[in-house]
Protein 1
Amino acid sequence: MSLISLVKHILCPIDFSEKSLQVIDHALRLSDVFGARISVLNVVDDSSPEYASYRRSEKDMQMLRRTLEQDSQNRMKLHIEPRLRSFPDSKMITLFGKPSDMIVKVAKEQRANLIMMATRSLGLTGQFILGSTTYKILRTAPCPLMVFSKPEMKFRALRILFPTDFSEISQLSLPYLFKLANDYGADIHIVHYRQMHNAISKDPTRHLELIKRSAISNRIPANRISINDDIKGITPGAAILKYAKENAIDLTILSAHGASGYKQFFLGATAVEVSSKSEVPVLLIRKMEF
């Protein structure tokens, strides 16, 4: 994958909360790194229980939709349009439906290369900023997803964590790691978690060295690369979070898969655990599925 063509279109779903608006500012700065255009999407869920009284007739529903659409557009003009003045190719979109479904639908139709959104850091059973939207998008997104639990914090990726299990899917993250490390002049931490219940079919030290060599060949100085073949924690997710905190990591990049299970390092639960509990942004890499 060409580093230049990694991200050409960023999709930012918003609910007009302060957190979601702050993610827009991060997206604008990241768009400069990748040379990407931005689409800002507000999905209005008119099936919400609060609108039940309007569903008595088609006329009432049409009036409700016109009102909600106008409200969304007014807020777009107030909060989003001023931010996008220097980005002529940007779009502001208002749609009706279930947020998770519509965000994935738009990402596919618009061929977005990255979805950026906010989430609360409440753990695996907590609710996300758009209900369970972030969790569902993690499972079904057709492209990488970047989530922020604390978007109010300044984002500058000076220390990037890349956990790997050496699987094919985890290798998808490497172009993003190299691109961001080069643009931010970042130190990178390449780590592995040894799962006790799985037989180790690959030598972790050797494979980490291979990734390090690949990083060096992509213009990352050797003195900015750290490797650790046995990070500690009760679970892979806990180990990643612990390492990130102890090493003042600014961004974690890992691969995510829509299925659940334990055969690979980052199937399902680990990606959810890290993205929902991390205090720093998490970039979850998925295969493009257009």
Protein 2
Amino acid sequence: MSDPSTTTLVLMVLAAVCAGWVDAVVGGGGLIQLPALMLGFPLAAPVQLLATNKLSSICGTTASAATYYRRVRPDLKTAIPLALLAFCGSLIGASLVSQISRAAFNPIILVVLIGVGAYTLVNPTLGRATDLRFSGRRHLLAATGVGFLIGMYDGALGPGTGSFLVFALVGLLGYAFVEASAKAKIANVATNLAALVIFIPAGAVMWKVGLLMGLGNLVGGYIGARTAVAKGSGFIRVVLVVVVGAFIVKIGLDVIGQLS
């Protein structure tokens, strides 16, 4: 593949800034970044696009995780086991990526997204304050189970991982949106790192593109995390609904295309 033009690189960096901001607030930056990579590099192999997306994303998730940690101080007794199991799940998912058909996942993910969006809309108080559903060992088991399953999805496919993590931590475990976003970012760093452990030795990363996009993603992630903490749970809820709605439209069109 020939070197990309300056115009292409600038557009990729701008897309990465936007993706980093969205990802830091509520996850779902891949909805912006992966389509941008597909448009900018139509001849690249899917694994190259996924690997380059992960390199860029880890820069933004690391910046936003650090910002959330400084400002929110999430409970690491839950966040670290969550991240460790997410790492393991992502390793498995990334190792299976060449054997998984995205078409098989799209209808399932579409149903899940519609459920997430509907549940969030009909529960206006959801995520305003932390009200944990479980305690002790049951809480840890639920958190690590969420981390492993969503981590596996992230390694194999990716887009929407942050949104799924946030919603699971809010809807299933009972965290407020800000606390959930902080923990989700820590777990997201782990899933991105695990995927890169698989992708880098395979030579799948487009380094020049990925590092430049990573810089943009880092800036977007830092700004997004500060915005989310300053605006609070109500703001994050609104962004979650918008991002999930965009996912429903995108994946719904993919499913229609598969059936036609």
